[in-house]
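FAQ
Q: What does a multi-component entry look like?
A: The components come first, one per line:
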Amino acid sequence: MNNEILQLHGLRKVHGDDRTGVVALDDVSLALPAGTFTAVMGPSGSGKSTLLQCAAGLDRPTAGRVLVAGREMTGDETELTRFRREHIGFVFQQFNLLPSLTVLDNVTLPLRLAGKRPDRARAIEILERVGLGDRIGHRPPALSGGQQQRTAIARALVTEPSVLFADEPTGALDTRGARAVLQLLQQAVRGYGRTIVMVTHDPVAAAHADAVLFLADGRLVGRMADPTPDAVAERLARLGDDVARDAVRAGE
Ligand SMILES: Nc1ncnc2c1ncn2[C@@H]1O[C@H](COP(=O)(O)OP(=O)(O)OP(=O)(O)O)[C@@H](O)[C@H]1O
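Then the predicted structure of the entire assembly, as tokens:
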């Protein structure tokens, strides 16, 4: 059985005109097994968000293929939307909850959008799992940032996505809120077998993953298994030095 739940083949993304635009991704290929937690790191502008957006079907690559659970992500907007609803979960830095809906209604929303029965019992079970069982009737503005992000994670998990993508999920949180969110993501992988890909700038956050992928100038330039915060920070510093040196050389 093919255990690789996410495959990227020769992904290229040019923002703007293909000839004069910005090359954000340059021939990125990777395959991630199901049930793994992967962090993506790299200097600012290295293409991390673009990689996540293309892999999640929120943006279209200029070239290359994305396969999720063995199926190619392709087609018109309607097909892409259906594919995303079925296979993809996404967690944003700024939570993106609907402020006028209760926590419970935010979490059942993806089911309703997919035309499925909004299974309240299941949504409540997930909210209990993320530690918000006593907050289901609250509205997001009444919650802390960490609680809002845990609501967003519950919303992303309710459809049991093949892959959950998270773009800087702890970027707007304090240390305590961030730790709770990272532990939750770990638990979703280790306890429930989900697959998570997370972009982060924070070596401590990245060290919660099983492996870290490093991007520089739109290319995959390294992978670290069993990361520690110190090892990640050191690798990142070296990458930053390399990028700065290349920029100086290009300007010579
Ligand atoms: N919509 C866009 N239009 C034009 N250029 C873009 C667009 N989005 C991103 N870029 C460019 O593509 C490159 C990669 O951007 P991306 O946001 O993916 O990098 P990143 O690694 O996520 O950066 P950061 O860590 O600063 O968020 C950058 O040079 C950026 O300026």
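Q: Is there any commentary attached?
A: Sometimes. For this entry: The chain has a mean pLDDT of 93.
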